Amino acid sequence: MSRSSFAATVLALSLSLPICSQTSGEDVVEARFGTTVVLSTGLQGRIFYISRYSKKLPNLDKKKPVGTIYTPGLNIPPRQFTEGFPGITNRNEWFALDYTGRFWIDKPGKYHFAIESDDGSKLYIDGKEVIDNDGLHPPQRKQAEIDLAGGIHSLRLSYFQGPRFEIALILSVEAPGDTRYRIFSTNEFKPPSDPADWKFGKPDDLTNLPDLTPARKRKRLQQP
After folding, report:
1. Residues of the chain with pLDDT under 70
2. What is the CATH number of domain 5-215?
3. Which of 24, 72, 175, 179 has its CA 20 to 30 A from that of 64?
């Protein structure tokens, strides 16, 4: 892959600009993994170093993160990645990200989620694995559907980047009644600011979320 200064300049500019492929009225998610600015209603992404021999997502629960970033959504189309994570690390290969957060469902029903990633990724909702897109591979998209009740839900998206330089990580959703996928954003899936307007659950649900640990891994951890 080319590592010319021109390509690096174009990459730096593109990572700082929002992707405007969404239509008017939808939240625009910038094309980057996140920033160090804390977003209380966004996704928290912990950054990990991983072995250069990794062929799939390692057990991130046993690793110590080197930094934390925040974002309302993930919309990183296939591209080169050379600049690392400003303010945290210059690592641009052999790293993993573990995003966790919560989102509000106002319209119960069947939701379709999709992940496009390079390299591997997995999506969990309420501790249940929904999409397995793991492994070393070029940009690859997988999708699945899940029935969601109204109220607060937990989300976890784990991702890793193997050898340099190509990356991709896009999380999209198609809600009941929609006719196409759009970029998932926590800004579009948050509860009313006034608890009196909540149609489902109660504010205490925000502090009583399901365990974000994947169900089968949680079962192993609980064994004596």
Report:
1. 1-29, 205-224
2. 2.60.120.1560
3. 72
pLDDT in tens, 74-88: 999 999 998 889 889
Q: What predicted TM-score, i.e. pTM, was given to this entire model?
A: 0.81
Rg (the chain; Cα; Å): 18
Contact 169, 116 (CB under 8 A): yes
Per-residue model confidence as pLDDT tens digits over 14-58: 333 333 334 444 566 677 899 999 988 899 999 999 999 999 999
